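Weekly modeling sync, notes
Attendees: AB, CL, MP (scribe)

Item 1: holo prediction request
CL wants a bound-state model with magnesium ion before deciding which constructs to order. AB pointed out that an apo prediction alone won't tell us much about the pocket. Agreed to run with the ligand included and paste results into these notes for async review.

Input as submitted:
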Amino acid sequence: MSGAGVDPAHAIVARRLTRRFGDLVAVDAVDLEVRRGELFGLLGPNGAGKTTLVRMLTGLVPATSGEAWVAGIDVRRDPDGARRVLGVVPQALTSDLDLTGHENLDIYARFFQVGRAERRPRIEELLRRVSLWDRRDDLVKTYSGGMRRRLEIARGLIHAPRVLFLDEPTIGLDPQSRRVIWDLLGELRRGSEITISLTTHYLDEAEALCDRVAIVDHGKVVALGTPQELKASVPGSDTLDLGLAAPPGDGSRAALAALPGVRDLELLPQGVRIRADGGAALLPRVIEALRAASVEVTSASLSRITLEDVFIHFTGRSLREEPAARGPGGPPRRGP
Ligand SMILES: Nc1ncnc2c1ncn2[C@@H]1O[C@H](COP(=O)(O)OP(=O)(O)O)[C@@H](O)[C@H]1O
Ligand SMILES: [Mg+2]
């Protein structure tokens, strides 16, 4: 492996990776280690520096300072070597509209020197995998946004890269097309050893797909872990709502407050709201405590913390463009 101390178990490594544009520090001394075979998420709002980070990792933009390795190759010292082992699906759609889907892939296959004999079967396999085989001879300008994105994913895979970078692959797509891409990424992982770096500003996408997520804000990684770890790192963010036949007395309130994990009790007109860590484990104990105090429970609901709450916790603001839509009866979330 080139570079001192790059662990071969890591498919992507960034050390103090930094990019300035004039006075703006778009990416600020980022350290990252993505394991082989991982689907790793870069989650952050527009302007956080995600694309700039990916462009440095893929050798498309020179770093101002710091180091980057992909599949053990030093991206700054050996950009051509790195390009052979990494695939990129850029944020902006770049396939040629005036060529067919097949032609687009063929150009890339030649560019990456995929051998003549290999080219046809490889293109067919990829077009089938992204469900575009039937449309292979149609011009790309007749494709929908989702089809174009799928074609570009196939294009990013044409030279069988070991690491695939996808930058906002579902941006602007309808829910159904997003789903198709999610399924595609799931299949890709099951069928190969590939490492995937996925940039997104969609929380549900990060949660559904990623093994680990780095929350990026103002060019820095402000939190990193599995979605589960990130949620567990925010205290008191599960909410239990209990409907009660009668208001709880002082004794039963004290009993609830004493349960492990309970952070806060709030009386509601027809019950009580509990903020706690580990709400799922707590719920039966809460019901038991109320029963022991002869308080009748008429309803119970548990809202687990979401990545949105985690994001607010670490950045002080919401990632959503619009106010959070809540299910019926769902409690509003408090900031930290
Ligand atoms: N080529 C560039 N020249 C000047 N500023 C840039 C350039 N590319 C990105 N930026 C700025 O860097 C910051 C991070 O941008 P970007 O990496 O595209 O963020 P994201 O992908 O998270 O939306 C933004 O403030 C953006 O305006
Ligand atoms: Mg971007």
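Recorded for review: Residues 10-231 form a domain with the Rossmann fold fold (CATH 3.40.50.300).
Action items: CL to compare against the apo run; MP to circulate these notes.
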